[in-house]
Design a protein that fits this description.
alpha+beta; 19 strands; 6-stranded antiparallel beta barrel; about 475 residues; two-stranded parallel sheet
């Protein structure tokens, strides 16, 4: 009871103190009842509206400036209502490979350039997307199952014959866009490097044989990323590609020679841990039923410590263009060399293939199987002949490791799995946001083909090829002088 009385007295004291505090500051009541003069209130409202209007005006000005910049750069139409046509008066968009002042041709209207959504709409970043339109038959390799693609390719010979009849031998025949994918050769080339952030980054932390194995895996795993049934567009002289990968690795490629087709490249690893550079002479061979592509040239990986490893790629084949199954696969040999550590590696692709009309495939082998070794070579350099089988190698001093597996499944070195197609995915390519005017994405034929306007794409392809021939004639004329 005494405690309750004490609490009651304390409560009364607290209440009194609060009342006193409120009474001590009567201006709060004044502030609550204060009224802003009408003219001052209107002034404040006017100032607030003015600031809001100024903000809206600034935003509208920024919007107009941004829109004009996009028009000037070719991403929005300069005139007309079609969002895909840059102009109905001008003959070319801002970054065209054609000469300035080229006339407008209604058969080949100038396109607006790719939006970011369009640019990445065809990106293939996993196994299902990369191998879309293919199946893997019992004998291995990739079987084309896309009936639309096969129909387009089957019409090629008819198209070429029609051109020859029309020209009567007086003009060059241009391959129809039906056999092309909406991608340039430089973009296709960059696809094979998409495992760099994984394996070359690992290799940069290692040395000796361990580093060598990571480089082998990087190069061999990337092959399936470029196995496509449609042909990429040959690059125009001076055409470039700029991109980056998931870890910041940068990719730069430039087409430096038109005939023969040569391009130079530089891949810079994140934090300059490594760089991959070299050049390729792209060779294409076509027969009645087969198309074969080969990138001839050095691929040099140089690490931050100065150590270098060289390698080369196998051929890529498309078989069954006219008759039989339409198959796509790499064929031939892939070689690696580490001179500092006296290491070499050879991988044979399609090693179990038939050797003659009446022979059969090696028992148990499939088209996508690989067979390879890592070894110490003899001091005497071997003849410059590529082996068809490992037993054909003449410079083996000591075998160190065995390479097995499949370029469509997994890569194993001495029974240790280094890559599995379902577990290690390639890095996506992110194209430079503000590229050089010579970038591949500004080619009108590629833009129109990706938008499925084949008539426009074919006309632009012809115009660009004609321009290239004129430029080549001018260069020849200058050199003769």
């Amino acid at each position: 009871c005494e405690q309750l009385e004490d609490d009651k007295e304390f409560s009364n004291e607290k209440s009194d103190s609060i009342t006193i505090e409120k009474a001590a500051f009567p201006e709060e009541k004044v502030a609550a009842n204060f009224q802003v003069p009408e003219h001052e209130e209107q002034k404040l409202i006017t100032e607030s509206q003015t600031k809001e209007e100024q903000g809206l005006a600034r935003r509208e000005e920024v919007r107009k400036n941004t829109k004009q910049q996009l028009i000037n750069k070719g991403y929005l139409p300069k005139d007309g209502s079609n969002p895909h046509i840059y102009s109905t008066k001008l003959g070319i968009p801002p970054n065209s490979f054609l000469r300035r002042g080229s006339p407008y041709d209604p058969k080949a209207p100038p396109p607006t350039y790719f939006s970011e959504q369009e640019l990445y709409s065809m990106a293939a970043n996993n196994k299902e997307e990369i191998l879309k339109g293919f199946s893997v038959p019992p004998e291995g390799g990739l079987l084309c199952t896309d009936k639309n693609v096969m129909k387009r390719q089957s019409e090629v010979m008819t198209n070429i014959m029609g051109q020859m009849i029309k020209s009567m031998g007086g003009a060059r025949v241009s391959l129809p866009v039906n056999i092309f994918e909406a991608k340039g050769l430089l973009e296709r080339v960059a696809d094979v490097w998409r495992f760099a952030p994984t394996y070359l980054t690992n290799a940069a932390r290692m040395s000796g044989l361990s580093r060598f194995k990571q480089v082998i895996t990087f190069a061999a795993a990337g092959i399936y990323c470029s196995m496509q049934q449609l042909k990429p567009f040959n690059p125009l002289l001076g055409e470039t590609l700029e991109a980056s990968m998931s870890d910041g690795t940068s990719v730069s490629v430039e087409h430096t020679s038109h005939n023969p087709i040569v391009y130079h490249f530089l891949v810079n690893g994140a934090d300059n841990r490594y760089k991959l550079y070299g050049h390729h002479n792209f060779k294409l061979k076509m027969s009645a039923n087969t198309m074969e592509a080969f990138q001839d040239g050095p691929n040099i990986i140089e690490f931050a410590d100065g150590h270098k490893i060289n390698y080369c790629y196998p051929k890529a084949k498309v078989h069954g263009l006219i008759m039989g199954k339409r198959m796509v696969y790499p064929s031939g040999v892939m070689e690696f060399e580490d001179r500092a550590n006296n290491l070499k590696a050879v991988i044979i692709f399609n090693y179990g293939k038939k050797r003659g009309l009446f022979s059969s495939r090696m028992k148990g082998s499939k088209i996508d199987h690989i067979d390879g070794i890592i070894y110490h070579p003899k001091n005497t350099p071997p003849p410059n002949v590529r082996a068809a089988q490992l037993k054909d190698l003449k410079d083996i001093h000591k075998v160190i490791a065995k390479i097995t597996g499949s370029w469509l499944n997994s890569i194993n070195i001495d029974n240790a799995q280094y890559w599995n197609i379902d577990q290690v995915t390639p890095s996506p390519l992110k194209f430079e946001g503000n590229p050089l005017p010579s970038d591949w994405r500004f080619r009108e034929d590629i833009v129109w083909l990706r938008r499925e306007k084949t008539e426009y794409a074919q006309e632009w392809k012809l115009r660009l090829e004609t321009e290239q021939r004129k430029d080549r004639a001018l260069r020849a004329e200058c050199l003769d002088k």
